Amino acid sequence: MTKKSNGITALGTALQESKIVQLLEICLVFLTAALIIVIAQPFIGDNPLIRQGVVWGANIAMILLVWLGLRFRGERWSHLGLRRKFISLRTFLLSLLVFIAAMVGFILGSILMVNITGIPEGADMSGYNFLQGNFLMLLGILPAVFLVSSFGEEVIYRGFLITRISEIGGSGKKAVRIAMGVSAIIFGLVHFEWGFIGMVQTAFMGLALGISFILLKRNLWALIFAHAYMDAILMIQMYRGGSP
Questions:
Q1: Which has more pLDDT, 237 or 127?
Q2: Contacts (Cβ under 8 Å, ≥6 apart) of 154
Q3: Which residue, of 3, 4, 65, 207, is most buried by count of CB atoms within 10 Å of its CB?
């Protein structure tokens, strides 16, 4: 690989200038995760904890690829919305607003499914049954959930996906709207283990998070904290044997 005078590699230049290469990067990130899950499938068995671990491993692989893309371009995490100053009263207050918006999106998805199917069912959360009544497991899993799900999913589905798709479209308003829509759909699809209703619910929640990301001028930390609140509530519900 030839080094450019400004320190950016030839691949980095292609990632900045070629829409085809940018699209291939997005495909690579998600195909890698899918490949990890497919390869691990025969070894998972019926153990939901191992299954969750494989999903987390796929998320970590995606984050690493996102980081490599930044490195090749000569960009920092701040390009995806991860600014250095993230602990502030303003970010905390904004995260509460994002949390409310995301929950409203989730509820709207539920209402839509009830109107379509007539069945007031919730998402299939049986994959978290290992948490029921196990307080030590709850304490052990929460840090991993915050790191891989709360942080990782916001980096991947909002910071990376919305930013890169909108860049492919020229970063105009129309491109940003398309990016938010695509991000929401993919976010819903990757929650396929939650069932069809769960996918619709998370897609609407993802749309609310995507809109928040743009309205808050790509303040990704506010979304990460909001996502952490939702994950904590979900894990506690699973511990108590409830359902969202």
A1: 237
A2: 209, 220, 223, 224, 227
A3: 207
Residue showing tokens 């390009």? 79
Q: What tens digit of pLDDT does each residue of 169-202 get? A: 998 999 999 999 999 999 999 998 888 888 999 9
CA distance 103 to 98: 9
**CA distances from residue 185 to 12, 161, 199, 205, 218 in whole angstroms, order as listed:** 28, 11, 9, 10, 19
Per-residue pLDDT for 76 more than 50?
yes
Give the pLDDT band (50/70/90) at residue 2.
Answer: very low
Where do we find the tokens 């939650």? 194
DSSP assignments along 32-99, one per residue: HHHHHHHHHHHHHTT-HHHHHHHHHHHHHHHHHHHHHHHHHHT--GGGGT--S---SHHHHHHHHHHH
pLDDT at 123: 65
Determine whether 140 is exposed, middle or buried from the number of CB atoms within 10 Å of its CB (0-12, 13-18, 19+): exposed
For 98-142, give the DSSP string.
HHHHHHHHHHHHHHHHHHHH--------GGGGGGTT-HHHHHHHH
Residue 8 burial (C-beta neighbours within 10 Å; 0-12, 13-18, 19+): middle
Q: Under DSSP, is residue 9 helix (H, G, I), strand (E, B) or coil? A: strand
Q: How far apart are CA 54 and CA 33, in angstroms?
A: 9
Give residue limits of the domains in the chain.
1-75, 86-244
- The Cα angle at residue 82 between residues 79 and 84, in degrees rounded to 5: 110
Q: How far apart are CA 240 and CA 207, in angstroms?
A: 29
| Residue 227, both tokens | 């996502």
Q: Write down the pTM of the prediction.
A: 0.89
